[in-house]
Specification:
Elements (H helix, E strand, L loop, with lengths): L1 H27 L6 H12 L3 E3 L3 E4 L3 E6 L2 E3 L11 E3 L1 E7 L7 E4 L2 E4 L2 E6 L15 E7 L5 E7 L9 E4 L2 E12 L4 E12 L2 E2 L4 E11 L4 E14 L4 E15 L6 E13 L4 E11 L2 E10 L6 E8 L4 H7 L16 E9 L4 E10 L2 E9 L9 E11 L7 H13 L16 H6 L2 E12 L2 E13 L2 E11 L2 E10 L6 E12 H9 L5 E14 L3 H6 L2 E14 L3 H12 L12 E14 L2 E10 L3 E10 L4 E10 L18 E9 H6 L1 H81 L2
Parallel strand pairs: 7-12, 8-13, 9-13, 26-27
Antiparallel strand pairs: 1-4, 2-3, 3-6, 4-5, 5-9, 6-8, 10-11, 12-15, 13-14, 14-16, 16-17, 17-18, 18-19, 19-20, 20-21, 21-22, 22-23, 23-24, 24-25, 25-26, 27-28, 28-29, 29-30, 30-31, 31-32, 32-33, 33-34, 34-35, 35-36, 36-37, 37-38
Helix pairs in contact: 8-10
Length: about 750
């Protein structure tokens, strides 16, 4: 026991001697005498001037450390005279005894007035290149033959672990960092950086708060940022967490909506490095009235990091969002739209692929659902796969109201009309991009209303591969009819090609056209339409001029509305005969039992010669051309009056049975669209009267010839009767004359006999 006692006494004396020696070294030696040595060594190692303006104040027991006054490190050559770094003061102290147990007990770390100037020159060099330490060392060895060999060895960091860490706290105040990139022409400044923590101890939570400002002249932006959270560092279990993290940012700048934007970011972050996992729970991002929340998990950090999570938003008002963004909200036909919206999505991503699943976007009463994925992120243009669907949407509600649209059109008309260009504006297609696309997806809509047309059960498949973009197998239901169509864009050649195959079966024309034009339809009846056309070109005019192909239409049991051909013919006939007609019935139309027409396109000009419309009263045929590049129609309908029906004035037209009338349809697309029936009537106005006059004159001449022939026949008969009567009278007179002559002869004989005496 005495030996142990003396050993302890000796050890204590030795420690006391050592302590006194260290204390004497600290307190009896003037450390400021080493300023020049330190400054010279920095100059030797970096080539930069280090200026220690403040005093060096060391301490030993129980805290070993140093307090430093102002220190300045010069900038690299060629980057200006301002210092690279400056510290107003710093204080760091470590408790000595815990170091023997690999425990670090640090008193509050203080760093005041840090200023750092970071720059990149136009050649890409930076003002810290000469300060970056290499992670490798190079040694020179000899192989014995007189040849030296340089061997580079990577220097690994210490693998010693810290058994415990205690820090009274960290205080960084008034730190400033500036960044200027002459190569990119950008700049940024971090000013007033303050950071403060509570007492730090391993595996125990501690508070952290920070505040700073960021500004950039090149971007015209500045922001004030405040952050806080509670941190736990468990080095032994390799678990690091940040709970209740919240970062508030208030930014200002001309590029921001209203010149100001506030953003609040929050999350609970847990890094399980032993499991190579990071969890971000209760994530939130709030700005402009939109709040996005969710959870994200990152796994396989050391191999192929995989991100998976789910995000959703609150229900917000798009109109209010427009206002906060400083954007004028669109004027809509329905003032109630754009009042509420929300979204949610599940995401998954790896270094090789990415996907969005369970996507739900709600806008007012419409729900948009779908999923999209990029199976491979390799390549300049990654492949895309998607499936999107909309339940029902009335697009007309989101379009400008009719009055507003008319007003806009009027303002456009009143504005100065620009000089028309003789050249056709080209269509610039990104052909190189189109050739790289690999897209396969489907877009479907339960029902959609646009331009007052309601279409349902829409399916639009989209495929792009090898430079060919195709909507192959489009399906839709439209006004009792069914659409089956294909559209293609071929970008494999220098001049892009286009093709459309379209079939519409069982369509009802009247409700479709009435809804489309918002006025009475000019056509009714059930029909089928088919179209097969191709074209190519770099401009609209070239596309129209290159159009080739054909179309077919067939309608049954319908009518051409807005014009009654029978009435117009009867009115013209009455005018020729000086009669008057009763007013036309309100239901003005020309009924038909069938209406067919087809046409062929060549160089943008459609030629049709087989119009065939059959009605109880009329037969209508037609031929002509439709010039798409010139947007002009030159067509002639030929109407044959059959007069076989009691309806539509059949009795009145009985006298015109067989009469043919040519009705020209000539005009621009705009004129025909605005007043189809009016254009026909205008063409009929003079033509129908002339045709009827000619037809009436022909009939009159025919009747006159007939009457003349009948009169001549009667005259000839009368002449024959008169001649016959004359001949009879002549014969009777001759007979009487002969009888008188014979009587005279007999009397003469008798007298002669008397004279001769028999």
């Amino acid at each position: 026991m005495k030996v142990l006692k003396w050993v302890l006494i000796v050890c204590g004396v030795l420690m006391l001697v050592v302590g006194i020696g260290i204390a004497a070294l600290v307190y009896l030696v003037d450390w400021n005498d080493f300023k020049d040595t330190i400054q010279n060594q920095v100059k030797k190692q970096t080539g930069r001037e280090l200026t220690i303006a403040g005093d060096l104040n060391p301490s030993v027991f129980p805290w070993a450390g140093i307090s430093i006054g102002e220190i300045t490190l010069a900038n690299a050559e060629g980057f200006g005279d301002q210092p690279f770094a400056r510290i107003s003061s710093a204080d760091v102290k470590v408790k000595l005894l815990p170091l023997l147990k690999k425990s670090i007990n640090i008193r509050t770390v203080e760093l005041n007035g840090l200023q750092v100037d970071l720059q990149r020159a136009t050649d890409g060099s930076t003002n810290w290149d000469d300060l970056v330490d290499s992670t490798s060392t190079t040694t020179t060895t000899s192989d014995g033959s007189g040849t030296d060999t340089e061997v580079t060895t990577e220097v690994e960091g210490s693998t010693a672990t810290i058994a415990a860490l205690e820090v009274g706290g960290i205080q960084i105040s008034d730190a400033n960092v500036s960044w200027k990139d002459a190569q990119a022409g950008t700049d940024a400044r971090l000013t007033g950086f303050n950071l403060e923590t509570g007492a730090i101890e391993l595996a125990e939570p501690f508070d952290l708060s920070t505040s700073f400002a960021i500004a950039s002249e090149s971007m015209g932006l500045q922001a004030d940022i405040d952050g806080s959270g509670r941190i736990t560092l468990d080095l032994q279990e390799q678990v690091y967490s940040l709970k209740g993290f919240k970062l508030k940012t208030t930014a200002r700048g001309d590029s921001l909506p209203g010149g100001k934007l506030s953003v609040v970011l929050g999350a609970n972050v847990q890094a399980l490095l032993g499991e190579q996992t990071i969890n971000l729970n209760k994530m939130s991002l709030e700005s402009l009235g939109v709040a996005l929340k969710g959870n994200v998990k990152v796994t396989d950090l050391d191999t192929a990091p995989t991100v998976a999570g789910k995000l959703s938003s609150n229900t917000f008002s798009p109109k209010e969002l427009f206002s906060k963004l400083g954007i004028e909200a669109p004027v809509t036909a329905d003032e109630k739209v754009l009042s509420k919206a929300s979204l949610s999505v599940t995401l998954a991503a790896t270094p090789a692929s990415a996907a969005l699943d369970d996507l739900i976007i709600k806008l007012d009463e419409t729900t948009f659902t779908g999923k999209a994925g990029v199976p491979s992120l390799a390549g300049a243009v990654p492949p895309l796969r998607f499936e999107f669907a909309v339940d029902a949407i009335d697009i007309d509600r989101y379009l400008p109201p009719v009055d507003a649209a008319a007003e806009t059109a009027e303002e456009s008309t009143d504005a100065e009309t620009p000089v028309a260009s003789d050249s056709d504006t080209p269509i610039e297609l990104p052909l190189d991009l189109l050739r790289q696309l690999d897209v396969d997806g489907t877009f479907s809509v339960g029902s959609v209303k646009v331009s007052n047309l309601t279409t349902s059960d829409i399916v639009i498949p989209l495929k792009a591969k090898g430079g060919v973009l195709a909507l192959d197998g489009i399906k839709a239901a439209l006004y009792e009819g069914n659409i089956d169509a294909t559209a293609r864009l071929d970008a494999t050649k220098d001049i892009p090609g286009y093709g459309v195959q379209f079939s519409l079966a069982g369509i009802q024309a009247e409700p479709l056209l009435a809804d489309l034009m918002q006025k009475d339809s000019f056509l009714s009846g059930g029909g089928d339409i088919s179209l097969d056309i191709t074209t190519s070109g770099h401009s609209v005019n070239a596309i129209k001029a290159g159009l080739i192909g054909g179309f077919n239409t067939a309608f049954t049991d319908g009518s051409i509305n807005g014009i009654n051909l029978g009435y117009q013919i009867r009115r013209a006939k009455a005018a020729l005969s000086g009669k008057t007609m009763a007013n036309e019935e309100k239901n003005v139309k020309t009924d038909f039992s069938s209406l067919t027409v087809s046409g062929n396109f060549s160089n943008g000009v459609m030629t049709s010669t087989d119009l065939d419309m059959r009605s109880p009263l009329l037969r209508v045929s037609g031929a002509g051309k439709v010039d798409l590049p010139a947007e002009q129609v030159d067509y002639t309908m030929t109407t044959l009056v059959t007069g076989t029906s009691k309806g539509q004035g059949g009795d009145d037209l009985a006298g015109l049975k067989g009469v043919k009338l040519d009705i020209p349809i000539r005009g621009s697309f705009d004129e025909l669209a605005a007043n189809f029936a009016g254009v026909i009537l205008s063409g009929m106005k003079d033509n129908i009267t002339g045709n009827l006059k000619n037809q009436a004159k022909a009939l009159a001449d025919e009747e006159a010839a007939k009457l003349k022939a009948q009169a001549q026949e009667q005259l000839d008969a009368q002449k024959a009767e008169a001649q016959k009567a004359l001949d009879a009278k002549k014969a009777e007179a001759q007979k009487k004359a002969d009888e008188l002559k014979n009587q005279a002869k007999d009397k003469a004989k008798d007298k002669l006999k008397g004279l001769l005496g028999n």
